[in-house]
Amino acid sequence: MSAPNPSRYLKAFTLIELLTVIAIIGILAGITFGVAKGVGDHAKITRVNSELAALSVALEGYRQYYGDFPWVGADVHGDQIDPKESGFIPLVNDRAYNLFRALNGRLAPHRLSTNNYGVLTRQIDKNGTTKNKYGRPFIKPGLFTLERLSQLTDAPVNNPILPDAEVTPTADDPDFVNALLDPWGNRYLYYFRDQTATTLWKSPSYLLYSAGPDGLASKPAADGTRPAATGVDADNLYAQP
Fold first, then answer.
1. 223-240 burial: b if 16+ Cβ within 10 Å, else e
2. Which end of the chain is more exposed for a tag (fewer CB within 10 A), N or C?
């Protein structure tokens, strides 16, 4: 007599049972992904706070050295977050671009300059000869994520001291950087009084912040008041001057 076949007694899964198992797997995967994303965002928020603190120290060093915080130009591109937005044309008075330049000795305060973009001009000999020269740097670029130019044609328009066209951009050359980026890949936002509206700004200090995980933020009011902590600005992360 042949041995019984165990497979004859196995009960197949019903469609409902299979769908239930799939649903449970999906829920567990969603929970795992949510936890991982939460941990990732928490780490990025910690990094943002650290970088904002370092930039605050640099801005204070700039103020002590020059007597005022950087003036970085009019708000040409609104909130200045996305350089890939439709119609975006890099200009020398982009705020994010000039914040980086100021903290790397490439941009002096407007009141010390000989042109509209704050390029520092110094006397280099006793005969009164002058030359555009870099000033004192206040940050180490290697400690930050940088938005780099992919080619010279990406450079801001009318830059008065960008190297000649035959110069090839290098990874460590601050003249080929557009902005400081937060851990989500968006530009840090910096606002202070500028040469076109100095009487409107009432805040005694600057406003420096990240748009946060959603990558969206509004600009402050003309007097320097922070955006309300609602909507796209609910997750903004601010430096403490």
1. ebeebeeeebbebbbbbe
2. N
Burial status of residue 241 (CB atoms within 10 A of its CB: 0-12, 13-18, 19 or more): middle
Q: Please compute the mean of the pLDDT values over residues 113-136 and round it to a whole number.
A: 58
Domain membership of residue 153 (yes or no) is: yes
pLDDT for position 104: 86
Residue 8 lies in a domain: no
- Residue 6 domain flag: no
How many folded domains does the chain comprise?
A: 1
Residue type, 14: T
Q: State the pLDDT at residue 83.
A: 56
Q: What is the pLDDT of residue 14?
A: 73
Domain that holds residue 101: 14-238
Number of neighbours of residue 35 by Cβ within 10 angstroms: 10
Q: How many CA atoms lie within 13 A of 180 on its CB side?
A: 26
Q: Does residue 200 form part of some domain?
A: yes
From the list 72, 73, 76, 49, the residue with the least C-alpha distance to 62 is 72
Across 171-180, 186-195, 209-218, the highest mean pLDDT is recorded for 209-218
Helix 15-66 with 95-103: angle, nearest 10 deg: 60
Integer-rounded Cα Rg, in Å, for the chain is: 26
d(CA 209, CA 215): 11
Which secondary structure element, helix H or strand E, spans residue 132, and what is its range? strand 130-132
Closest by Cα among 84, 71, 39, 85 to 190: 71
Structure tokens at 204: 């005694």
What values do phi and psi take at 208, rounded to 5? -130, 130
